[in-house]
Amino acid sequence: MVTVMRPGTDDGVSDGGATNGRAGLGPRAVRAVIALGLAWVVPLITHPLRLDVLLPFLVLAGTMAIQRGATGLVDRFVLACAQLFGAACVFGLAMTMWPGHLKPTLVAGFALSALALIAAATGRLELAPRPATPARRTRRPADALTALATAAVAAITLVPYVARDLGGRLGLPLAGEDIARHYLLYDVIGRTGGYLFMRPEALRPFVPDEELNGIANYPQGLHFAYAVLGRFVASTTGQTSASAAVDVMVWLLVGTFLLLALAILWAVRRIAGPGTSAARLLPVLLVAGAWLVLGDPVTILSRGYPNELAGLACAAVLTALVVRPLPRLGEQTVTVALLLVGLSFSYPLFLVYGGVAALWWIRHARLWRFWWGWLAAAVVTLIAAIGPLTAASASGGSQLLLNGTARVVDRPATLVLLGLAVFAVLLRRGMRAPSHRAALFALAVAFTLAAGLGLYQTATIGHPVYYFDKLLHLLIVVCLCALGGLVRFLPGVGVALRVAIALPIVAGLAVAGGEWHTTPVAPGVKLALGKDRGSPEAARDALLMSRMFPDGGGAVNVDLMGSPWRNWSATLGAAALQHNYRYFPAWSGLLYPGSAGKASTMDDLDRLVRESPVPVRFFVHDPEASLLVVDGDKPHRPNVRPGQPLPVAFGDPAAPTNIAAARALAAKYPTKVQVVYATPANP
């Protein structure tokens, strides 16, 4: 009898079989059982030690370890983050229904168990190290340069946030208004333990009835991920106040931008090709990195749009994988599927781009040949439809025509970037390469979506607005990814000359910005130098009010301490922090000083107090502060100067000041009105 010796086994018996005729667990099965045990033992140990914050990093490390198509740490990190976000969006559907909700031990236990099972199924629990391949060795300098470029972007980005106190950090996105509702979703999901579109009644105590459907059906994948991470942080620090929670959210917002930056720089390197030298890659990363921290992308951070940042990051990774797919078809399929889910659950507007780009790869991969390809397509379509369907149920037919507070995109700079991207793809007969044809297709899809919406808005309302700029953000990201093709520019030129050619582009981006690139200094420069402050005084007022009355104190809290924009933003911020947003909209019209806001009289203020379902608490400080007028139809505001910041004395001199009005109402409604003479916090 001949005994066949198989690699990696003893005595001619394969792993998982029988030894000497006796049934038993093979080494792979034993390792799987041990890994599953550790998946629960580790969270059970970290929780009493208040070390739960380490568990997300352990899950990330485990996801990086099971990658099979990655060739370096940067590859593994980017792919792991993309996969985890999509998986968290899907996992949230189950977590919303189970009784444990967001308990760190349960979340980490199930996540680590899933990783252990995947590692066992794919053979990643094997102890023998894999030999280094030439492909891995050639990528290391480029990986190191990509990591260094990301570190430089991170250092520049973090300066204005590290240098500010919590009020200063929160004040940046608070000027964009939307951050208050993002915090509301993040906070309520953390309290109730799951998606609110699956149980909107859990949101009802926190929002007005007329806004329940819109807020409950807003895409919540990122808010859910933030809430999970927030629970891990709170479990470690023991700090559960609104100030601590919003501080965590602001840092998660910054972290999301840094992940977007890494995704774009990684996509540039990947599209450049595996054999690209660091010398050729350096000037391209310089241009892409500068565009991130100086141009329009950084305004998405400063205005506080976390969902859009996550959607753009998913689009960047998806673009890179469509242009240069992973070597293993199964891993590529899973990653693309999770990226589409991530787009759906974070920013459905970009899902059209993601779906069409994915179809390009599906066609070239001939995925329809496999039965599991049809199954994957059906499952992904079903899950990815959740985001657009819920968003559609919360929106009116004219949603794409609405305006917003996003900064208008720099049109000339975007055209220059588009030209560079097309040049990078077509350079030196680039259309011969399948990757360059895929990159050109991605550019065409992103451009067509933006141009199509711009034409529709112009034909309907006369000019492009809000969502057109959002699609321009998508176009910018796809263009930045496609810049990887520029490594083929002037192949015989040294690195010094390449950098010298790139520097004028960076300088031109830095010296101006604005819609037509005519406003001195780029938005990123203003942010880094502290010229873009947002609304720090409003944020500090909101934090002060929430610290004095964490749950609102059974009243609606109205800020009348300072200038009109400060009062409006602070009242909005405090309403979210105190879980009192339900009562804010009624006061928004009175406080809002913009063109859409109606000039209010003492009678209007009296009516709001009289009709308020809860007591009213006015916070006052500055004796000059005013907002009321005598005649609401013909308001007289003598201190307002066109082009200048609105003054503290915003109202009609003949009308009561804020303090006088608050005192009069407190005297008229002694059981319903309270006046708090507060001292605003200093930085």
TrEMBL record:
Keywords assigned by UniProt, alphabetized: Membrane, Transmembrane, Transmembrane helix
Region (Disordered): 1-20
Keyword Transmembrane included in the entry's annotation: yes
Domain of life: Bacteria
Record flagged with keyword Iron: no
Residue stretches spanning the membrane: 77-98, 104-123, 144-163, 248-268, 280-300, 336-362, 371-391, 411-427, 439-459, 471-490, 497-516
Coiled coil regions in record: none
Stated name of the protein: Uncharacterized protein
